[in-house]
Amino acid sequence: MKSKASAPGKVILFGEHFVVYGVKAILCAINKRITVTAEKIEGKKISIKSNIGNLELETGKLISEINSPLKPFYYLADKMLKNENTGIEIIVESDIPLGVGLGSSSACCVAGAAAISRLFRKTSKEEILTLAIEAEKTIFKNTSGADCTVCTYGGIMNYDKENGFHKIESEPNFHLVIANSNIEHSTESIVEDVREFKENDEAGFSSLCKKESKLVEDVLELLKENDIKKLGTKIKENQEYLETIGISNEKLREMIQIGQTESFGAKITGAGGGGCIYALTDESNLKQTINQFKDKNYDCFSVKIDFKGLDTF
Ligand SMILES: Nc1ncnc2c1ncn2[C@@H]1O[C@H](COP(=O)(O)OP(=O)(O)OP(=O)(O)O)[C@@H](O)[C@H]1O
Ligand SMILES: C[C@@](O)(CCO)CC(=O)[O-]
């Protein structure tokens, strides 16, 4: 019997990095997905096949001894195989570019947790989210949990570490244009750089956290009113805070400049250091914004909000 699940990627609209320190962030799931198929196989082994490589190992290995980006899948399979006499084969199919801020790792962990656990029993979304966050911690110890949460439940939501998520019910009528710098990042190392920034300037970082919290509360009101122009000014403000904590660079600044020519506002999304930026548009400036990027040969596409989240087959 095969068990299959898919989960969407995500865009962090506001609050990346600050969310790791307890500030509320606003995120949405996007219509790009990772699909994981799991199947029991003979022998006590775990076999993982993906477009980024393959891994085949016996069960029962220590996670700390596995040096592979496919480790989260091994973790999930090995956990499920305790006291079982079989193995698992896992196949990963992805249309989310890796390491560019669109939540490929969380989509892998959520779809992987669902497909693998459901080989043994029906698991709830809550259980799957817990498993997914545990799996993500094998590659990124300090995850805030925000990405896995939005990949599980879909839609647009606010999230903070203490209170979890709250879905935003109004369906905003905006389009997001994503442009990719094609510079891969490791989320873990950029989060580590921000921790160093914080340790060198605790007072400055705490003041930025307060400003970001206020900004997110303002944005929640603007989303209710669907005030897209004012949302654009908040995007620019949030980008300034991200510049201050040092996760931007020349290339990203150039892309933000291009994105802002026609859109309401543009900023980094996700860890930064490379990866993607998004520009906020509506019907009036969507095409023009895409053309601005295309004219300068940037890899660019528009995404819609995914309201489904995790899907199991
Ligand atoms: N197609 C894939 N097959 C297997 N593993 C993948 C795949 N795509 C992503 N991953 C996992 O996700 C990791 C990349 O995660 P990382 O957090 O660095 O980037 P991201 O999730 O794309 O960006 P962000 O966290 O900023 O949204 C890979 O090292 C691997 O563990
Ligand atoms: C940078 C960060 O805020 C988002 C990465 O997509 C890290 C996290 O929330 O775990």
UniProtKB/TrEMBL annotation:
Where is the chain membrane-spanning?
Answer: none
Family matches, as InterPro entries: GHMP_kinase_C_dom, GHMP_kinase_C_sf, GHMP_kinase_N_dom, GHMP_knse_ATP-bd_CS, Mev_gal_kin, Mevalonate_kinase_arc, Ribosomal_Su5_D2-typ_SF, Ribsml_uS5_D2-typ_fold_subgr
Q: Could you state a single Gene Ontology molecular function term?
A: mevalonate kinase activity
- Enumerate the UniProt keywords alphabetically: ATP-binding, Cytoplasm, Isoprene biosynthesis, Kinase, Lipid biosynthesis, Lipid metabolism, Magnesium, Nucleotide-binding, Transferase
Location of the GHMP kinase C-terminal domain: 220-297
Q: Is the keyword Coiled coil assigned to this protein?
A: no
Limits of the GHMP kinase N-terminal domain: 78-155
Keyword Lipid metabolism applies: yes
Return the EC number.
2.7.1.36
Pathway membership, UniProt: Isoprenoid biosynthesis; isopentenyl diphosphate biosynthesis via mevalonate pathway; isopentenyl diphosphate from (R)-mevalonate: step 1/3
Active site, per annotation: 147
Q: Which NCBIfam families does the protein's record reference?
A: mevalon_kin
Give the record's family classification.
Belongs to the GHMP kinase family. Mevalonate kinase subfamily.
Q: What does the function comment of this entry state?
A: Catalyzes the phosphorylation of (R)-mevalonate (MVA) to (R)-mevalonate 5-phosphate (MVAP). Functions in the mevalonate (MVA) pathway leading to isopentenyl diphosphate (IPP), a key precursor for the biosynthesis of isoprenoid compounds such as archaeal membrane lipids.
Tell me what this protein is called.
Answer: Mevalonate kinase
Look up and give the organism this protein is from: Nitrosopumilus oxyclinae
The gene name reads mvk
